[in-house]
Write a structure and sequence with these properties.
The chain is mostly helical. The chain has 10 helices and no strands.
Length: 211
């Protein structure tokens, strides 16, 4: 029952009233939130695997007979195989697009969210600026996991432009904007991330494709 609710929420099959109730539970129950994030990660990985498999199947079918055809009749098998492969790819792509269309900006942000791990979890040397910004990032990531995007933004926004931890600040701010429904603001940061050497470049490009 627990996992069914998570699956129905991810796929956008919950009625509005149940969806609201479920989101309240996500806010209040850490265990449920953890299960939800794990299921979202599994769901995304499965969709990515399906797309890769479809593309590989298409390549195999098209390369089954690489020699050029000189007779019209001999073209039929290749085109039939290509049509079947293209159909498979189209169906899988449509299935992915349908599923992706059910994902709200908030759900996408939660899917890509990972907690910021403190280098100094015991809080020793708190007077250091490095420790201070790390604590801010940790707190912001915790707030995002609790779906408190506006509070996270209030912490992250003053850190913008700071060189220390700039990559992490950009990434979490993009997720915070996305979770808050400020999609265009999030996309601006994600586009910037995707054009430079950044530890989240691949995720930013993938997320942009899904927005």
């Amino acid at each position: 029952m627990h996992n069914e609710k998570i699956q129905e929420y991810i796929e956008g099959r919950l009625p509005a009233e149940d969806k609201t109730a479920f989101e309240k539970r996500l806010d209040a129950e850490r265990a449920l939130r953890s299960d939800y994030m794990a299921e979202m990660a599994r769901h995304t990985a499965l969709q990515a695997t399906m797309r890769v498999q479809a593309k590989e199947e298409l390549k195999k079918m098209l390369s089954a007979n690489p020699q050029p055809y000189t007779r019209v009749r001999s073209l039929r098998p290749m085109w039939m195989a290509a049509a079947i492969a293209a159909g498979i790819l189209l169906l899988l792509s449509l299935g992915y697009l349908f599923t992706a269309s059910q994902e709200t900006p908030e759900q996408l942000a939660m899917n890509y969210l990972e907690p910021y791990v403190l280098d100094n979890p015991r809080g020793e040397g708190n007077e250091s600026p490095v420790v201070s910004f790390q604590q801010s990032l940790h707190e912001a990531s915790q707030l995002l996991s609790e779906r408190k995007a506006k509070e996270a933004i209030r912490i992250l926004k003053p850190l913008e432009g700071q060189q220390q931890g700039a990559d992490a600040i950009e990434w979490y701010l993009a997720l915070a904007y996305l979770q808050d429904g400020q999609v265009e603001a999030s996309k601006e940061i994600l586009k910037d991330i995707s054009t430079k050497a950044h530890y989240r470049k691949a995720q930013a490009m993938e997320l942009l494709d899904r927005l």
